[in-house]
Write a structure and sequence with these properties.
196 residues, mainly alpha, 68% helix, globular
């Protein structure tokens, strides 16, 4: 188990080890849904919610089921099943109580299941041997960092709609350039704290 303070881990997972801008995990929904700030914020909140709770669920599954039964090698399958089940639950709740957001997110809400950032956080938690509090801080911070990145990209894309972008760079090209520039900007925080 590492000795990192949970608050430091929370801060690092937002800025210096951001799942999108440092690890490039969860890029497909990040690029596809970042057209509107409100939709991006809704998806970011859903990802944060799923990330936080699946990290906790996977922590307990790993520590109290897989390790005692010597089944650690099944963690990929178990983590994916728990993430898929939890996302289905979230989708049913959003569909019932927030139909406008459910319609806006469309196919991307169930696709949270295959968002590799969510599986990545659970696997980093195991590889880095985080405690329960550290895992909770890392999961929540990673969700906040993912949300911050997608909302920032949505804001930049909105500004670009009013700008004259060369025809060859419109769409995916300018999005990848902006994402790369955002990643460079976040590298400026790397002196704060690094986790590995």
């Amino acid at each position: 188990m590492t000795e990192l303070n949970p608050f430091v881990l929370f801060t690092a997972s937002i800025f210096t080890s951001n799942m999108i801008l440092a690890n490039f995990l969860g890029m497909c929904s990040f690029i596809a849904v970042s057209k509107d700030i409100k939709t991006s914020l809704g998806l970011g909140q859903a990802v944060t919610f799923v990330l936080t709770f699946t990290t906790v669920i996977n922590y307990f599954l790993y520590k109290y089921v897989l390790i005692p039964m010597n089944l650690e090698y099944l963690r990929y399958i178990v983590f994916i099943i728990s993430i898929a089940a939890f996302v289905q639950l979230v989708e049913m709740i959003v569909e019932r109580h927030l139909p406008v957001l459910h319609h806006a997110l469309g196919i991307f809400l169930p696709l949270i299941t295959v968002n590799c950032a969510i599986l990545g956080v659970s696997l980093f938690m195991v590889i880095r041997r985080y405690s329960f509090i550290q895992s909770l801080a890392f999961g929540f911070g990673s969700g906040v960092g993912w949300t911050m990145a997608i909302v920032a990209l949505a804001g930049l894309k909105k500004r670009l709609n009013e700008s004259r972008v060369p025809k060859g760079l419109r769409g995916g090209g300018i999005t990848l350039i902006i994402t790369g520039l955002m990643a460079l900007g976040f590298m400026g925080f790397s002196g704060m704290v690094q986790i590995s």
